[in-house]
Amino acid sequence: MTEGFLGTSARAEHTDESGKRVDDILRVRGVEDLAPDEQASYDRLDAEVTEPGDEVFLSLDEQEDRRDARATRHSLLHALVVLVSDQIAPGDQSGELVAELLAEEDFMVDAVLTVESSQASVRQALETAVVGGADLVITVGGTGAGPRDMTPEATKKVLDKRIPGLSQALRASALACNAIDGGLSRGVAGVSGSTVVVNLASSRSAIRDGMATLCPLARYVIGELNQA
User: Fold this and answer.
1) Where do the MoaB/Mog domain residues begin and end (predicted)?
2) Is there a contact between 95 and 125 (Cβ–Cβ < 8 Å)?
3) Which strands make up the sheet holding 195-200, listed edge to edge?
4) Cα distances (Å, whole numbers) of residue 66 to 9, 56, 171, 172
5) What is the pLDDT of residue 93?
6) Is 85 part of a structural domain of the chain?
7) Residues 86 and 45 both lie in one domain
8) DSSP 8-class letter at 51
9) What residue numbers bound the domain in which 183 lies?
């Protein structure tokens, strides 16, 4: 008698080690009733089945998106923190807090610098960071309306392009969480060369909320700069 289209070889692919058809076993008894040797055969067959979520089913664009996502997660971006203050209060760990939050977002923090509240000092620190190749520079403090709050003025002189949306997002999120100094901050954000520069207010609430808002946005801008 002539074999059907599937033939003996096709049936053999669906038999367990004892010669019984695995699909017959499953149909009669269900997976939970299998003997140990039958379960092993079922597991082996199940592992060999390609699911729609497997990469072979993805389009070329989807595969490229996955590769880009993996590369982004594993790429190490360099950041530098500039704490702007004429006098550091005992126990003030604003700079260290920003560095810690950056590390949690997979940034390599090269340094935490402390400079006085003068345009010249802030500008010099920013220019040094840009020349050093930092991907992101965050200043902390000096964004208020006081006579010594000159961080935005110094930052503007370093920027090649302003990114108003970044600073606006920081102010909006700060007001939403009642971080008043962050909501009323005069801070600016933008790009200098291939470095993203952002001003943050100095309260802990402004820093914590600001960093949660900033990191994904900064990473997006850095990605745009790296594609240029």
Assistant:
1) 80-221
2) no
3) 107-115, 77-84, 136-140, 195-200, 189-192, 161-162
4) 37, 13, 33, 32
5) 84
6) yes
7) no
8) P
9) 76-227
